[in-house]
Amino acid sequence: MSKKIFSGVQPTGNLHLGNYLGAIKNFVDLNNDNQNECIFCVVDLHAITVKQDKDQLKNNIRETTATFIASGIDSSKSIIFNQSKVHAHAEGSWILSCMAPMGWLNRMTQFKEKAGKDKEKASVGLYIYPILMASDILLYDATHVPVGEDQKQHLELTRDIAQKFNKDFDCEDFLRVPEPLIKKDFSRIMSLKDGLKKMSKSDPSDLSRINLTDTKDQIINKIKKAKTDSFPLPNEEHKLKDRPEAENLLGIYSSVLNQTLDKTLDEFGGKNFSDLKSQLAEVLSSKISPISDEIKKLINDQNYLDKVLAEGANKANEIAGKKIKEMKKIIGF
Ligand code: TYM
Q1: Is the pLDDT of residue 1 over 80?
Q2: How far is it, in rounded angstroms, from Cα 105 to Cα 97?
Q3: CATH of the domain at 126
């Protein structure tokens, strides 16, 4: 069955292995299946929910675009664009924010985590951020949305908002209710310094993550310094309970090689972390270094990146422009 795929990544710098294994690697597989229509968005409107430096933001938009392409997304097959170039996203977000009850947003755990203790100081944009995400997805009638596990709640909200809009305006099936595509395994990559914390671009320690722009030496060093425990590696999955660092490193190894955790446990059961670490560093650097080299090359070709984004925005505008027009008509504008 052909799928309409939509997903987004924030251009906030430091794209890392979690973004790659949880999302971008899956974008590439979906892009390679000729049956799918894929749209990948650099969500720059989402990025400004927290303060951004103007020049840095511009660079990060290009770097995220370069990362998509360097990872293997083909811009002649998929639409790649940045959100702020397509007005319908912001307009749709306003309309949907007038339908979505505050109670639904109050449940969003990511807002609570990101806003921290001082919620009063968080921007209103950060609070209503999941509604902009719903607008992104619903404007394209996306059938499937590939994301990491941390976005699951936002996708459930998107589904609820779509259903409420259709019911409130008596327009059954106008907004398509999308399916999340979250891999059963390895959809939550954890910090290299703490197996209970998600790998994240905002972690102050660079040693907590493998950045997609890291060199081979940086990757080797970070894996060497990754947190471990003091037991040999187990050979059965249930023995990973309460061993988050072992589970994470074995999971990363499996995901990069596209193999099951069971196979990896067969390979390393009874061995020491040092054996896993040396193999993992090798596997990771042979996967990430070519991407990193390509990102660095593409970053120097700003004209090319800007052209990809401009062409993508034209195509996206056509689709989203039509949908927002219909949406406004339904409302009574
Ligand atoms: P963002 O930019 O935080 O992350 C981009 C993608 O990377 C995944 N991800 C991870 N996966 C596994 N392990 C991790 N440690 C990890 N960290 C990040 C995320 O799940 C995501 O898929 N709100 C979204 C962007 C967005 C979007 C959308 C996504 C905006 N509009 C519409 C899908 C559809 C976000 O902030 O992702």
Answers
A1: no
A2: 10
A3: 3.40.50.620
DSSP reduced 3-state for 39: strand
d(CA 324, CA 327): 5
Ligand 1 midpoint to CA 232 (Å): 33
Residues with catalytic function? 114, 198, 201
Query: Domains in the chain: how many in total?
Result: 2
Count Cα atoms within 13 angstroms, Cβ side, for 282.
Answer: 6
Full domain range(s) for residue 21: 4-186+302-331
Quickly state the pLDDT bin for 312 (edges 50, 70, 90). Answer: very high
- Tell which residue, 67, 66, 78, has the closest CA to residue 32: 78
Closest CA to 143 of 38, 41, 46, 34: 38
Q: What pTM did the predictor assign? A: 0.97
Pocket of ligand 1 (CB under 6 A): 6-10, 18-19, 22-23, 43, 46, 133, 136-137, 145, 147-148, 150-151, 154, 187-189, 198-199
Structure tokens, 175: 């907004």
On the CB side of 98, CA atoms within 13 Å amount to 9
- The SS3 call for residue 72 is coil
**Do 178 and 257 belong to one domain?**
no
